[in-house]
Amino acid sequence: MHDHTRETLVPLTLLAAASGARTWSGVAAIAPRTVVPIVAAGELIFDKMPNVQDRIDGASLLGRIAAGAVVGAIVGGRAGMNRGQSAILGGLVAFVSAHATYRMRRALGERLPAVAAALVEDAIVVAAAAAGAALLRRSARRAAEGPKAQSIASADTPARAVV
């Protein structure tokens, strides 16, 4: 796999997976200077309510898939990839993540109090979103530096002696 593809797919996967668990988390991570992080924080709180619809049911699942698709399109666009294909990938990752994290939360709930299980899941989601956003920023910095700066950096690395 090419470095450029890996540098795009890993953050896209982390961010879309975060959105599969908490709809707004992936978008909030890549749009921190908007109102979205406030909405995402509200979602983290609201998720603890006992009457919240399961994430794998109806509109809730569709919203997560849509959020994953938005994340995919944004990440793909920033990386110069096909936005449509990136959106589809983001939606698929969010779908899988919604189901996987739903099952994980239920399994945790069998061993921990419900709120503790939710907080463990929140920590995983926030960490995935933060890691995805950090990798995306790092990739953007590398791209902005251009190939000349990257070749200079590799020239600064000492060569190994051939034995």
How would you describe this protein?
The chain has helices at residues 3-21, 25-30, 36-46, 58-78, 83-111, 114-155. Helix 1 (3-21) runs antiparallel to helix 4 (58-78), helix 1 (3-21) packs across helix 5 (83-111) and helix 5 crosses helix 6 (114-155). 35% of the residues are buried. Helices cover 79% and strands 0% of the residues. The protein has one domain.
Summarize the structure.
With 163 residues, the chain is mainly alpha-helical.
Number of strands: 0
* Outline type: elongated
Structural domain count: 1
Low-confidence stretches: 152-163
Total of helices: 6
Helix content: over 70%
What's the arrangement of secondary structure elements?
Elements: H1 3-21, H2 25-30, H3 36-46, H4 58-78, H5 83-111, H6 114-155
Helix pairs in contact: 1-4, 1-5, 1-6, 4-5, 5-6
What tags apply to this protein structure?
163 residues, elongated, 6 helices, 0% strand, mainly alpha
